[in-house]
Design goal:
By secondary structure, the chain is of the alpha+beta class. The chain has three helices and four strands. Helix content is 41%, strand content 22%.
Length: 98
């Protein structure tokens, strides 16, 4: 079983995403939550499948889309470290620099 860990920022991102979805569309919360977890498990098994975005991140992270969100992770870490989970329409570069 491949493993992953969430940074405190990623935990907060997921909490915010699910809270927002629950207010807008409660029936979608489980689907989105499971979709994110399934993607993180896949990335832990195959960390090279994500893509790099030098225009968005200075550090060596990879990106993987899930619905309208980006799972941002460090592929070389064991267990896989999920750095952030952000909506793709947000200012991802600015949020990663914070």
């Amino acid at each position: 079983m491949s493993q992953f860990v969430l940074t405190p920022a990623a935990e907060g991102d997921i909490r915010e995403i699910l809270d927002y979805i629950e207010r807008d569309n409660p029936s979608a919360v489980n689907r989105v939550s499971e979709g994110l977890r399934d993607a993180m498990r896949l990335l832990a098994e195959r960390p090279g499948i994500g893509h790099t975005r030098a225009d968005l991140a200075r550090e060596p992270v990879r990106f993987w889309p899930v619905f309208s969100y980006l799972v941002i992770y460090r592929p070389e870490t064991k267990p896989l470290e999920v750095v952030r989970v952000l909506r793709g329409k947000r200012d991802v570069r600015r949020l990663l620099e914070e």
